[in-house]
């Protein structure tokens, strides 16, 4: 292990970040690297405990606990502490195809189940992961490594998000000839057209995609399967098909005034903003506007940060639930994911600009009101009361007399997704679940159609990058088994 007494001697440090007031003037990443010396200290805090929970990858009460990729965290912490970076990188790449993505955007369920977190702040696992892979690229240790032997089997992957990319990488490593089809003009799924650049710069995605190309994977963009190429044609041309088309069907708020101009889905807003940065195309601008983001989750936070960079006059984010507690509640014990108050990058930025956190809690929008041109001008809301019951359920009710009117010229709806667009599944005649996702058993990924598999958000529903990589890897293993009758993929 690293340093036996490290967790007693050293305190956790937050990864350095650029000054919020400065970084909102550009779209570059807000995080900064730790110094190598500081990383060594942070890695020394790992206790290498007898039964580490950080890499268990379980789901407890619907939330991840431990790393879903089973990253060998105590091992690479120890190697970083010993300055054995190249070995740490090898260990990390055994379980994670794309640590440069997770090291930047993962909510780090590993840290919530770190044993040190029982009595102190957890080990800074995510920052160490990012440092290992970034050093790997800087030092030129990561080079294209195409397979030595090809099997002659052909696999089509539909969708180039993290699930599709991880599956393609694994299948290519196993020697299959892989083609990834993407309906958008760029590869990456939500890594490219969802997660904003200040969290994940697009050059980081391109760097990985170029590596995959050099290793022999073919990418076909601007091609929608089910429209530009039929499901039948794809099945006939390939030995297996993996559907990784995500889960991006918007959830809407169907209340009075919804038809007003100036109300958009968060995804349309974010995608246009990213495309605008990359190609100079038109964006939905928040400049000089009062912006209201409906939805208290991470997508909403990304909208807040984007609106700030566009020069919004004010930004407020509405959440349906109460403010999270500062520390774990009894009903949320370790090693569950800690549902505690977090000051994400977007909220720090809003506080730096406007002097306060932009979040409003337990609030419900009752109607949108438009001006004489049909453009939204205000939102009417009411405060809610949430009552928990003994069986863990809760009820919500409006508090009379708390009605309020908010000015808004731009409203962004970020209240989640209702499953996958059905067109692709229908084209393949793949059965759906009641949640509008592909029906394919976890761990097997087979659908009701011979030779057609499904993974990632398309199977699981809108989730996390780390789960998408996990499912892509596992689905690749099952496809390899299907094609070769045995598999050496993990
Ligand atoms: C705004 C936003 C921010 C997020 N931030 C984070 C974060 O910070 N951390 C985190 O862990 N997770 C985050 N997530 C969730 C995460 O991005 C997803 O869980 C993950 O990208 C899912 O990967 P996937 O490969 O299954 O699908 P996706 O990334 O959705 O990719 C699916 C791809 O399939 C393509 N496609 C669809 N239909 C077809 C077709 N018929 N033919 C060809 N191609 C098709 C789509 O164009 C898309 O490129 C965020 C999600 C959103 C919406
Ligand atoms: S991928 Fe996420 S959960 Fe796994 S070690 Fe990295 S930050 Fe932790």
UniProtKB/TrEMBL annotation:
Stored InterPro entries: DPD_II, FAD/NAD-bd_sf, FAD/NAD-binding_dom, Glut_synth_ssu1, Glutamate_Synthase, Helical_ferredxn
FAD/NAD(P)-binding domain: residues covered: 153-472
Keywords, ordered alphabetically: Amino-acid biosynthesis, Glutamate biosynthesis, Oxidoreductase
Gene Ontology molecular functions: iron-sulfur cluster binding; oxidoreductase activity, acting on the CH-NH2 group of donors, NAD or NADP as acceptor
Signal peptide positions (record): none
One GO BP: glutamate biosynthetic process
SUPFAM superfamilies for this protein: alpha-helical ferredoxin, Nucleotide-binding domain
Pfam families membership: Fer4_20, Pyr_redox_2
Pathway: Amino-acid biosynthesis
Limits of the Dihydroprymidine dehydrogenase domain: 23-140
Superkingdom: Bacteria
Entry protein name: Glutamate synthase [NADPH] small chain
Protein source organism: Bacillus smithii 7_3_47FAA
């Amino acid at each position: 292990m690293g340093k036996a007494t490290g967790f007693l001697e050293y305190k956790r440090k937050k990864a350095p970040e650029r000054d919020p007031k400065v970084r909102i003037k550009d779209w570059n990443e807000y995080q900064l690297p730790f110094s190598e010396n500081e990383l060594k200290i942070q890695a020394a805090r790992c206790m290498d405990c007898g039964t580490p929970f950080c890499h268990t990858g379980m789901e407890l009460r619907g939330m991840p606990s431990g790393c879903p990729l089973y990253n060998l965290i105590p091992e690479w912490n120890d190697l970083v502490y010993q300055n054995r970076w190249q070995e740490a990188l090898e260990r990390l790449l055994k379980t994670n195809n794309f640590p440069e993505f997770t090291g930047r955007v993962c909510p780090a369920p590993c840290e919530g189940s770190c044993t040190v977190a029982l009595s102190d702040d957890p080990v800074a696992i995510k920052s160490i992961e990012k440092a290992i892979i970034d050093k790997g690229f800087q030092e030129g240790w990561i080079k294209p490594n195409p397979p030595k032997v090809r099997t002659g089997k052909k696999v089509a992957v539909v969708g180039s998000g993290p699930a599709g990319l991880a599956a393609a990488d694994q299948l290519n490593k196993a020697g299959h000839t892989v083609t990834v089809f993407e309906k958008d003009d760029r590869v990456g799924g939500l890594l490219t057209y969802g997660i904003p650049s200040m969290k994940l710069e697009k050059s980081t995605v391109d760097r990985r995609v170029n590596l995959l190309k050099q290793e022999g994977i073919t990418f076909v963009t601007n091609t929608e399967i089910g429209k530009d190429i039929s499901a039948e044609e794809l099945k006939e041309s390939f030995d297996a098909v993996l559907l990784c088309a995500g889960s991006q069907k918007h959830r809407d708020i169907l209340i009075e005034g919804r038809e007003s101009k100036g109300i958009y889905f968060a995804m349309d807003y974010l995608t246009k903003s990213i495309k605008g940065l990359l190609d100079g195309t038109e964006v939905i601008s928040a400049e000089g506007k009062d912006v209201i983001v409906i939805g208290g989750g991470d997508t909403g936070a990304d909208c807040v940060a984007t609106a700030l960079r566009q020069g919004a006059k004010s930004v407020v984010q509405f959440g349906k639930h109460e403010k999270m507690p500062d520390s774990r509640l009894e009903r949320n014990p370790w090693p569950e994911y800690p549902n505690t108050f977090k000051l994400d990058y977007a909220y720090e930025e809003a506080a730096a600009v406007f002097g306060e956190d932009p979040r409003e809690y337990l609030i419900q929008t009752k109607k949108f009101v438009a001006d004489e041109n049909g453009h939204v001008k205000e939102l009417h809301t009411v405060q809610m009361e949430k009552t928990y019951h003994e069986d863990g359920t809760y009820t919500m009710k409006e508090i009379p007399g708390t009605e309020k009117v908010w000015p808004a010229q731009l409203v962004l709806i970020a209240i989640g997704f209702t499953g996958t667009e059905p067109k692709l599944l229908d084209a393949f005649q793949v059965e759906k679940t009641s949640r509008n996702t592909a029906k394919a058993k976890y761990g097997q990924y087979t659908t009701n159609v011979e030779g057609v598999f499904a993974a990632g958000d398309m199977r699981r529903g809108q989730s996390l990058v780390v789960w998408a990589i996990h499912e892509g890897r596992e689905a690749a293993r099952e496809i390899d088994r299907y094609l070769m009758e045995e598999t050496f993929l993990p």
